[in-house]
Amino acid sequence: MADLNAGSVVAARNAADVVTTKMTARNVNVYYGAKQALKDVSIDVSQENVTAFIGPSGCGKSTFLRCMNRMNDTVASARVEGEIKLDGEDIYKGGMDVVQLRARVGMVFQKPNPFPKSIYDNVAYGPRIHGLAATKADMDAIVEGSLRRAGLWDEAKDRLGESGTAMSGGQQQRLCIARAIAVDPEVILMDEPCSALDPIATAKIEELIDELRGRYAIVIVTHNMQQAARVSQKTAFFHLGTMVEYGDTSMIFTNPSEPRTKDYITGRYG
Amino acid sequence: MASMSASRPATETLASKAPTDWSGPAMTARIKGRYRSEFVFKYAGLAALVVAALFLVFLLFTIVRDGASGFRSTDVKVTVTYDPTILGIDQAAAKGPGGKQLIEQGNFQGLLTTADTGLGVGTNVVSEGAWLVLREAVIADPSLLGKTATLWVPTRSNFDLLAKGKFDLDAADEARGVNDADIAAYRQLESRGLLKTGFNWTFLTSADSTTPELAGIWGAAKGSLLTLLVTLVLSFPVGIFAAIYLEEFAPKNRWTDMVEVSINNLAAVPSIIFGLLGLAVFLNFLNMPRSAPIVGGLTLALMTFPVIVIAGRVAIKAVPPSIRDAALGVGASPVQVVFQHVLPLALPGILTGTIIGMARALGETAPLLLIGMRAFVTEIPSGLSNPATALPVQVFLWSDDVARGFVEKTSAAIIVLLIFLMLMNSVAIYLRNRFERRW
C-alpha cells in the first residue's frame, strides 16, 4: 500500500491529450425506496480514457454504473433523479429507447455470465437481435472479430460449438467481453469484471481493457486499487453515496486532494 | 449485548476463562450423545423408507395378483350351422351389393340361443355377446351362410372364472358363488378340450358392458385421453403465460399479491368443488353436453391451471438473474429475454410441473362424477362431446358392481391406470433430462 503512495504501481500511461466527452452526469441522485444510494454525483466520462470507479463496498459505485445504461430500471424500487447524457442526449428522457441504449452502452458483469449456449451463439446473440449481420458470412466475421478483440480467438476457434459455460472463469469473462463488443457499442461498462477471477485471468482482462481503450469509452468499477491504477487514466473515488474526488489516476493515487481519498488509498479503511 | 460489553470487556472474559477441556467426561458424554442421535436419525429414516416401500410392494402385489387375470379370458369352441332361415337372411342377396347391411341385421342372437352349438351340456356356456363373433365371421366370409363351422367364442363370466380357478370349489354351496350345473358343465367341457384361456383383447379394445366378459377399458381410457387433451390444451398455455406475466412483468403491489395468494389457494381447493363449479357453470349455465370429455377437460383444466402456474413460477424464479442481466446488457428487449433465455431454461421445470399436474388430473374422480362422467357408456367416445367416462371413474364403477367377474376387471383397470401414470411420469423425467442445461 505504501508503494501506491509512492506512485510506483501507477500506470505509466497518462491521460490522453485530446479528450472527447462521451457521457456526462449531472447531480445524479438514486434512491432505493426511501434509502438514498447516490447523492449528487456529477462526472464526465471521456471517449479516450479508461475511467475507474473505486471505493469501499456499498459506496454506490456499482449503482452509478448501472444507471449509465439504465440497468437499474430492472430494480422496481430504484428511482433516479438528475441527468445522464450520452453524446449530449439525456438517456432518462421520455422517448428514450432503453433497448437501443443498452446496445450502445454495453455491460460486463461481476460474475461471468455467458448464456448456456455455444460460444458462437453467445457472441452472435447481440448482433442477431439487432440485425447487424445480413449473411452467415457477416455473422462469422463479427464473431471472429469480437473474439479476436477479446483475445479469445486462439483458444475458442476450434470449439465454437461448445457451450460457453464449459470454459474456465477467465475465458468466460473474456467471452462476455466479446459478447459486449460484438454489438459494436460506444461505451463499455465493467462492473468489477475481475473479482471472480484468479490473478492470471485478471492480468489478461487488464491487458484486454488496455487494448480496447480508445476504441470504446470504458468505465470500470473495481475494488482493487492496484487494478484501477494499472488500467485507468481517470479515477473517481466514491464514499457513502457521494463522489468524493475525480481526477487523473496518477493524481488520485499520488496526490489526492481529499483526506478521505488519501485514507482509502493508503488502506486506512475500505 | 450493550450491557455485557459495558460491564465486562470481551477480551477480559476470554483471558480469565479456563482452557476448554476437550477430552473431559462432559465432552466425551456430549460426543457420545451426538453419535447416538445421528445413529437414531439414520435408522429412523431408513425404517421409514422401508415401511413406505413395503406398503408400495403390498399395494402393487395385491393389484397385480387380482388384476392380472383380468387381462385373460376363456373361450369355448362351438360348432354352429349358419341357418339362413333362423338368421332371417336371404342367402342370395347377402352375396350381392348391400349384403353387409343385410348380414348385420341378421338374428345371430336367436341362432345362438336356439341352434345346437355342439357343446352338449345342459347349461348356457357361451357369453351373451358371443353372437357378435358369429356375425363378424359371416361378414368376413358370406359364403359361410348355410354351412356348419367351428369357432371360438367367449364364455360366460362364471366359466371364465372357473377356468382361472377363482372359485373355492370346496366351500359350501351358498358361499361358492357358482352352481353345481356350471361346475359339471365346466369339467365336462374341459375334459373334451373345448375351453382355452388366452389374452383378453376384448378388455383392451372395447368399452363398458353389463356383462364382465364383454367389458373393456378402452372406452374409459379414450375418454381419459380426450379429457386430458382438453385439459392440456387449455391449462398449459394459460398457465405458462400467467406464470411469465406474474414473474417477469407484473408490478409487485397489493393486487399481484392478492392474485398470488388466490392462485395458491386455488391449488389447495378440494377437487370436488371444481366439479360443482363445472356442473354449475358448464352444464347448467352454458348448457354444454353432459358426460362429455370437453366438460371434463374444462373442469380439470381449472384444477390443473394453478398447479402449472405455481410450477412455472418456481421454474422461472430459478433461472439465475445473471442470465437476464446478460441478455438485457446486450440490448435484448424484455420479451426477447423471456422467450429466448428465461423460458428455455425454465422449460424442464415447467414441463415437469405440468406433467405432475396432468397425472393428478388423470387420477381425478370426484369432479368427473359431478359432471356426469360416471355414466354407463358402452360406446367408445369418438369426439369431445360424445358421452364418455374416465379411467378412475371406470375403476369406481366396476368396484361397485355386484357381478363377480368385475372384481378382476377392477384391478385390471387399476393396472391400466397405473401404467398410464407411469408413462406420464417417465415422459416428465425424460423431458427434464432432455432439456436440462447447466450454467
UniProtKB/TrEMBL annotation, chain A:
Native source organism of the sequence: Glacieibacterium frigidum
Q: Where in the cell is it found?
A: Cell inner membrane
Q: Which GO terms describe its biological process?
A: phosphate ion transmembrane transport
Output this protein's name: Phosphate ABC transporter ATP-binding protein
Which Gene Ontology MF annotations are present? ATP binding; ATP hydrolysis activity; phosphate transmembrane transporter activity
Pinpoint the ABC transporter domain residues: 23-265
One GO CC term, this protein: plasma membrane
What does this gene product do? Part of the ABC transporter complex PstSACB involved in phosphate import. Responsible for energy coupling to the transport system.
**This protein's UniProt keywords:** ATP-binding, Cell membrane, Membrane, Nucleotide-binding, Phosphate transport, Translocase, Transport
| Topological type in the membrane | Peripheral membrane protein
